[in-house]
Design a protein that fits this description.
Strand content: 35-45%
Low-confidence stretches: none
Number of domains: 1
CATH architecture: Beta Barrel
Distance between the termini: 16 Å
Order of helices and strands: HHEEEEEEEEEE
Number of helices: 2
Strand order of the largest sheet: 3-2-1-4-10
CATH class: Mainly Beta
Helix content: under 10%
CATH topology: OB fold (Dihydrolipoamide Acetyltransferase, E2P)
Largest sheet: 5 strands, antiparallel
Structural class: mainly beta
Length: about 150
C-alpha cells in the first residue's frame, strides 16, 4: 500500500502518517489525545503525563477529544540544556542515558522524568561531551512538532 508520494524533502518534513514519518528518518513518536486547542495551538496529553504543545496548521481539521493522535518530533529539532530555559512550553526534565560521538554530530538518548525516551541529534560544537546520567532539559518549539491522526 502506498501511503504517500512526494519528494524526499516533502515526505521528511510533512509526513502524512506515522509510518511514513518513521520510515524516512529517525523520529520520536508519542501517542496522546487532544486536551485543549485555540486558534494557533493544540495541547496534547500523553498517557505518561507529558503536555505537548503543537502548532495548529491553517486549514487543519482539529482532532476530536476522543481520537488518538501521534506526535512526531525529529531528533534534530530538540535542544538540550543543563539549566532550565525561560520558557516551560515543551520543556521536559530528564537524564542522558546514552551519548554517542559521531564526528560532526552527537547522538543522545534522554530519559525524561516520565520514563519516556527521546532521541536527540545535535551538531558537535564542543570537544567535551556531557557524561551519561547528566541531568538535562529537553525542549522544542511548537512549530517543530507534527500531530497526525492515527
Amino acid at each position: 500500500k502506498i501511503e504517500q508520494i512526494g519528494t524526499p524533502t516533502e515526505i521528511y518534513e510533512y509526513p502524512r502518517t506515522p509510518f511514513v514519518a518513521d520510515f524516512i528518518g529517525d523520529t520520536n513518536l508519542f501517542k496522546g489525545r487532544l486536551e485543549s486547542a485555540d486558534a494557533s495551538t493544540m495541547q496534547i496529553a500523553t498517557p505518561t503525563g507529558l503536555k505537548i504543545v503543537v502548532e495548529s496548521k491553517s486549514g487543519q481539521d482539529l482532532p476530536n477529544y476522543s481520537q488518538e493522535i501521534v506526535l512526531i518530533i525529529r531528533p534534530e529539532k530538540i535542544r538540550l540544556s543543563l539549566s532550565p530555559p525561560e520558557s516551560k512550553i515543551n520543556c521536559f526534565e530528564g537524564r542522558l542515558k546514552h551519548v554517542m560521538y559521531l564526528g560532526t554530530h552527537v547522538h543522545f538518548v534522554v530519559e525524561l522524568l516520565t520514563g519516556d525516551r527521546l532521541t536527540v541529534m545535535l551538531p558537535n560544537t564542543s570537544s567535551k561531551l556531557p557524561d551519561p546520567h547528566t541531568p538535562v532539559y529537553a525542549r522544542w518549539a511548537a512549530t517543530d512538532c507534527l500531530a497526525l491522526q492515527e
